[in-house]
Amino acid sequence: MALINTMTRPLLTGIIQPEDIYLKGNYKYVSWAKIANYLHEHAKGWDFHLELPPESPTNPLSNLAVWKAPDETGFLMGYFTDPKGNKTSSFPYPIMDYRNNPVKWEKISSRDISDSHRRALCACAAFTFSLGSELWTGNEIVSKEIWGLKKLAYTIQNKNSGFYNLIEYTAPADTVSSLEVEFKRDETIMRYLTVTLEKDAIEWAEKRRNRNFS
Q1: Nearest to 190, CA basis, from 166, 158, 168, 144
Q2: Which of 157, 214, 142 is nearest to 187 (CA)?
Q3: What does the alpha-carbon distance between residue 194 and residue 173 come to, in Å, rounded to a whole number?
Q4: What is the model's pLDDT at position 168?
Q5: Contact status, residue 9 vs residue 194, Cβ threshold 8 Å
Q6: Which residues face 192 on adjacent strands?
Q7: What angle do CA 9, 76, 27 make, to 5 degrees?
Q8: Is 73 helix (H, G, I), strand (E, B) or coil?
Q9: What pLDDT score was predicted for residue 33?
Q10: Side-chain half-sphere CA neighbours of 30 within 13 A
Q11: Mean pLDDT, 10 residues at a time, over the chain (214 residues)?
Q12: Distance between CA atoms of residues 113 and 99, nearest Å
C-alpha cells in the first residue's frame, strides 16, 4: 500500500484492461492511441514533449528532436509537463526499426522518427505514471483500489492528509525490492507498505473485493 502526497502525478498502474492488449509474436502490446486516450482521461493537463538537442552543424536533425548517440545511431528525449508547466525528468528512447534494432544515423527516416515518437510516448508514460508498466515488467495487477484523500494518523512532511491506494499484484520476488527502491526515490510517495499474501489471505482478499464472505 502506498501513501501518496496530495501534490502528485497520477499513478496509472492497472488502468490497462485485458481487451486493450494484443499479441505480436511473443510480446504484448497496447496501441499508442489507447495509451494517449488513457492519458487524456486520467492525466488531464499533463502533456508529452520531445526535448530538442542543442543546435549543431554536425547534427542536421536537431530541429527534429533527434539526438545523436556515440555509436552513430539516434534517440529521442521525451518528458511530460504537469498542469502548472513543471517538467518531469527526461526519458531517452532509441530510434528503432520494425525489428527493434537501432537505426544508423544516416539511415534515419521520417517514418522512423514518427514511429519512435509514438513508442517514446508509451515508454515515457510507463516511466512517469506507471501506465502499462505491467506489460514491461511481466507482472499482473490483480486489483487496484483508490481509497482517496484521508487524514493521516500523524503529520508527515508537514502534511496532514494524503491519497491512499491499495494495489494487489503478482510478480517475481525480486520485483518487490525494485519497486521499493523506486518508492524511496519518488518524492510524491510519503509512505508505503508491502505485504506478501498467503493462500488464505488471497482467498479473503478476493471475497472482500466481491463482497462475498459466506
Answers
A1: 158
A2: 157
A3: 12
A4: 83
A5: no
A6: 2
A7: 75
A8: strand
A9: 94
A10: 24
A11: 53 84 75 94 94 71 79 93 90 88 90 92 91 69 82 89 86 73 80 86 81 59
A12: 15
Report the pLDDT value the prediction gives residue 213, as an integer from 0 to 100: 52
Q: How far apart are CA 137 and CA 90, in angstroms?
A: 20
Q: Which amino acid is at 48?
A: F
Pairing of strands 74-81, 91-94: antiparallel
Q: Which amino acid is at 204?
A: W
**DSSP secondary-structure letter at 130?**
-
User: Cβ contacts of residue 109 below 8 Å, gap of 6+?
Assistant: 103
- Tell me the three cell numbers of residue 152: 493521516
Domains in the chain, CATH or no CATH each: 2-10+138-210 (3.30.70.60), 31-131 (no CATH)
Q: Which three cell numbers stand for residue 57?
A: 552543424
